[in-house]
Every structure is written in structure tokens, then in C-alpha cells.
Q: What sequence folds into this?
């Protein structure tokens, strides 16, 4: 059963990546602006002191650099993921004065010299995905990092998904958690 779901996920990942690569750069910029405006307007974001975000991979995810700058401007502490062996990850405080480290798959992350942020100190997580479905489930990149980390998180989770790749349903397994809120350019879905 799992191998069938794994196959379905691989096919969907490939299809969504093709859809995203077909979008014009100006459409991506407009999409990012709409997604970020909706995210920043959330009362949960306003209330959060510490936000665990991600540094978007160009062409695959929203360009969150500008969103992160705005969160910092609003006085938020921003954490970014740092990948560890065995498909684990930790959250390190983002410091705009310290360069990010480029690792595999085009991912940029904070270095070991950035302070760790404890899971309990995080109020809200912006969860990355290849795409989401209308039930709030995500299709991740296949490493399971976020599924493992989110299993012990009790705060608010938010997903951003371009309408162009929003699915009716993505293949899911028992360990797949859905986000509390899913934002597209035109909708805010709550679960």
C-alpha cells in the first residue's frame, strides 16, 4: 500500500513541478504578493512572537525572503529549518546579518552559529510544500523532515499554496498531518 502511495506522490510532485515551471515570472511575483498579504493579515500571525518559516526555493516555493524581512520588521523572531542526519531538523534563529548556508537541493539554511529555537518557543509554523489539497494536507518534498518535526508541535500551522497547483486531494499516509490554515491567493481555508 505504501509503495502505491509513494508512487502517486512522485507522479504528483513531477506534475506540479511542471505546472509551476510553466508559470511566468510576473505571475509568480503577483501570486507571492497575494499569499504574503493574506498571511500577514492573519490574527494568528499578529499574535505570534516566534514564527518558524522557510527560505523559499526559487521556482519551487514562494519567495519568502521578503515575507521574512517583513516579519522581522514587525518585531517577530523568525526561525528557519536546519537539516540534520536521519531526516531530522532543528530550528535556528534567522539573523539577516549572518549569511545563509547553501545545502543540497537549492535549500538555504542558517549556520550552526545561529541560536537554536526550542519547539515550545514557536507559536506558528509556515509549512512548506510542493502543493496542498483542499483538506489542508500537503505534498512534501519526500524527506519526511516536517512530518517528523510537526508530530510534536502544538502551535498553529499555516500553508501557502498557489491556486494553480491546489489539489482536490493529495495522496496521504497515517503520519501526514494537515495544516490548521491554508492560504491561496483568493482563499483562506481553516481546518
A:
Amino acid at each position: 500500500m505504501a509503495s502505491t502511495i509513494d508512487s502517486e506522490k512522485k507522479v504528483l510532485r513531477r506534475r506540479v513541478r511542471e505546472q509551476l515551471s510553466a508559470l511566468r515570472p510576473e505571475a509568480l511575483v503577483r501570486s507571492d504578493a497575494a499569499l504574503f498579504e493574506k498571511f500577514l493579515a492573519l490574527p494568528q500571525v499578529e499574535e505570534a512572537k516566534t514564527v518558524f518559516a522557510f527560505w523559499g526555493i526559487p521556482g519551487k516555493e514562494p519567495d519568502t525572503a521578503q515575507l521574512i524581512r517583513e516579519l522581522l520588521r514587525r518585531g517577530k523572531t523568525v526561525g528557519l529549518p536546519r537539516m540534520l542526519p536521519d531526516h531530522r531538523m532543528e530550528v535556528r534563529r534567522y539573523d539577516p546579518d549572518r549569511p545563509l548556508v547553501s545545502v543540497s537541493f537549492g535549500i538555504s539554511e542558517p549556520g550552526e552559529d545561529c541560536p537554536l529555537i526550542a519547539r515550545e518557543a514557536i507559536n506558528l509554523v509556515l509549512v512548506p510544500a510542493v502543493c496542498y489539497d483542499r483538506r489542508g494536507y500537503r505534498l512534501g518534498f519526500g524527506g519526511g523532515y516536517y512530518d517528523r518535526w510537526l508530530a510534536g508541535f502544538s502551535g498553529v500551522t499555516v500553508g501557502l499554496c498557489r491556486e494553480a497547483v491546489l489539489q482536490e486531494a493529495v495522496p496521504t499516509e497515517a503520519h501526514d498531518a494537515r495544516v490548521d490554515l491554508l492560504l491561496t491567493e483568493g482563499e483562506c481555508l481553516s481546518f
Notes: Helices lie at 2-21, 25-41, 43-47, 65-73, 145-150. The chain has a mean pLDDT of 94. The two ends are 27 Å apart (CA to CA).
